[in-house]
Amino acid sequence: MIASTSALPRFQRTLLWCLIAIVFFAPWPLGSNRIWAWSLLHTLIALMAIGHVLVSAWFRQPWWHHKYQALIVAGPLLVAAVLCLQLQAVAGFSTADPFQSTMMLQRSLYLALFLYLLSQYCRNHDDLKLLLTGIILTGTLQAAYGSSIYLAGMHGSWFFNLPELDRARGSFVYQNHFANYIALCLALAIGWMLSELSRQQRTLSFRQWLRELSTALLSQKVLLRLAVVVMILALVMSRSRMGNAGFFAALAIVSLLALWLYRNPPRWLKPVVLSIFVLDMIIIGSMFGVDKVKERLQETSFASETRDEVVLHSIPLLQEHWLTGTGGGSFYTVFPGWQQYSFAGFYDHAHNDYLQFAIELGVPVTMLLGLWLLIALWLALRSMQQRQTKLYQGVGFGAAMAMVHMLFHSSVDFSLQAPANTLLFCTILAMAVMARYLPAKRRQS
C-alpha cells in the first residue's frame, strides 16, 4: 500500500534542511580536515542517505528525478572509479599508498552521495534560495568569528584552542583554506545581491530615487551588503595573497561578462561592483590590514618562496606517472623521493591542485575533471544569459565567480584537499547546474 503523499513535502523539506545543516557544520571542526572530523561528516551524510532511502521506499519515489543529476555527481564518481582501479592494480593502475587512497575513495563516495541527495531535494526556486541562504550565513559567521579572534588579539582560538598567528583563519587550521572558503561564499552573496538590483532603465526624479533608495535599505539587499562587507574584511585579514587577488580578479572578469551576457543588465550593476572595489577593498580594507596584503605581495619573490621549487621538483614525478598517477592521496609519500634538498621543509601537498591531481590520478583524469568544471561554468554563464528568474541569474553569476576564483587559487594552493572547501565548491557546481535547469518560480504550484 502506497503511503499518503500529503506528508511527503514535509519529509522532503526536513531532509533538505538537514543537508544544509551539513554544509553549515563542515567548516567548523578545523575545516573537517582531520580523520575524526571528516568521519563525523561522513556519518551525518550516511544518516541523511538512510533517511532518503526510507522516505523514497515509503512514498514510492523515483531514485532519479532529472537527467542533470548525473552531471552533478560525475566528478566525484570519476575519481572514485579511478581510485578503485588503483587500489586493485587493474590495467596498469596502482597506488604508492593504499591507506591514503582508501581514505580518498571514501571521501569521494561520500561527496558523490551528498551531491546526489542535494540534487534530489533541492527541486525548485525556494529550495535553491534556502540553500543559498544557508551558505551565505555560514560564510558570514565564519568571517565574523575569524575577524573577532584576529581583532581581539587572542593567542588561542575558541575552537580547540589552536595558537593564533597574525592572520585571520576562522575555525580552519590554514589561513589560505579560510580565505578560499570565504571567497566562495562571497561570490554567491555578491551574485544574489546583484540579481536583486532593479532592471528598470527609466530616468528617476529625485523623489523617486529617494523612494527607491529607502525601499532598498529596508529590503534583504542591506543584509546581503552587510554580509559582503563582513566577509571582505575577513578575506583581507587572512592576508592570503591569491585569496584576495583571485577573488577581485574573478569579480572583475565575471562582472564584465555580465554586462555582455545580461539581456537587461541591472542599472546599478557597475556602481555596486565599483563600490566593492573602492569602498570595501580600499577604504574599509585599509583600516583592517589591506596594506599588509600589499606588503606580502610586494615581498613575494622566487628567492623567498619554496612553493615554486616544489612544483619544479614535482615535474619529473609527473613525467614518469602522467598516465595513471601514483595513487590518490599519495603525494606526500612519493614526493620526498624526488625532492632535492636545495630547500628545507616537508610538503604533504603540492601547493598546486592541478599538479597534485595530475600526479596522483593521472593527466587524463585531471583533464576530465577540468571538463566537468568547465561544463558547470558554461551552464552558469548560460543561466546569466537565458534565465528570466532573478535568483537563477544571481546563482549563475555567483557560481561563475566562485569557479573563476578557484581556477586562480588552485594554481598556488591546495584548497581542494580540505574536505569543507571541497564540499562547498562541489555544492556550488551543483547549484550552477540546478540554476540552469530548475523550473521557473511562476510555474510552481
UniProtKB/TrEMBL annotation:
Which InterPro entries does this chain map to? O-antigen_ligase-rel_domated, WaaL-like
O-antigen ligase-related domain: from which residue to which, for each copy? 226-369
Q: Which organism is it from?
A: Alkalimonas mucilaginosa
Keywords of this protein's UniProt record, alphabetized?
Answer: Ligase, Membrane, Transmembrane, Transmembrane helix
UniProt-listed PANTHER family: LIPOPOLYSACCHARIDE BIOSYNTHESIS PROTEIN PA4999-RELATED (PTHR37422:SF13), TEICHURONIC ACID BIOSYNTHESIS PROTEIN TUAE (PTHR37422)
Q: What is this protein called?
A: O-antigen ligase family protein
Where is the chain membrane-spanning?
14-30, 36-59, 71-93, 99-118, 130-152, 172-194, 215-236, 242-262, 269-290, 354-379, 391-408, 420-438
**Domain of life of the source:** Bacteria
Instruction: Report the subcellular localization.
Output: Membrane
Bilayer disposition of the protein: Multi-pass membrane protein
Main subcellular location of this protein, as a coarse class = membrane
Molecular function in Gene Ontology:
ligase activity
- One Pfam annotation reads Wzy_C
